[in-house]
């Protein structure tokens, strides 16, 4: 199974670099596992979708939250994380994969004064669907944002 199968709706992990030209319609980019790279991850998704995209702000926000988690909770020796993204006329799918760690993604409700802990809560609130996959060497969190047709609006 490869990243294209993930983006066709199957929940699989991609643990190796995939050439974007080998996977039609899917953009994949790898980032160093550094906090300052979250800005570049946001810019990658923002540039892919464009400001006029109906889910631009939600996609950029969720990418920021999940990329931050990828850096914070991956193994200490992790050197990178990757983002796979695909947008169609009906939905956007974004998957962020890191080097894995010792924790599993859990939604929690932090106290009002807690500075963090809201990323997965926001993901659960804003995403149409989401999930995660763990392998011995990686953790991947994916989410979709459905684009409503005018008939549904």
UniProtKB/TrEMBL annotation:
Record keywords: ATP-binding, Kinase, Nucleotide-binding, Serine/threonine-protein kinase, Transferase
CDD domains: HATPase_RsbW-like
Lineage: Bacteria, Bacillati, Actinomycetota, Actinomycetes, Streptosporangiales
PANTHER family according to UniProt: ANTI-SIGMA-F FACTOR RSBW, ANTI-SIGMA-F FACTOR RSBW-RELATED
Superkingdom as given in the UniProt entry: Bacteria
Pfam families in alphabetical order: HATPase_c_2
Protein's organism: Bailinhaonella thermotolerans
Signal peptide residue numbers: none
Record-level Gene Ontology MF annotations: ATP binding; protein serine/threonine kinase activity
Name the UniProt record assigns to this protein: ATP-binding protein
Keyword Chloroplast among UniProt keywords: no
Limits of the Histidine kinase/HSP90-like ATPase domain: 31-144
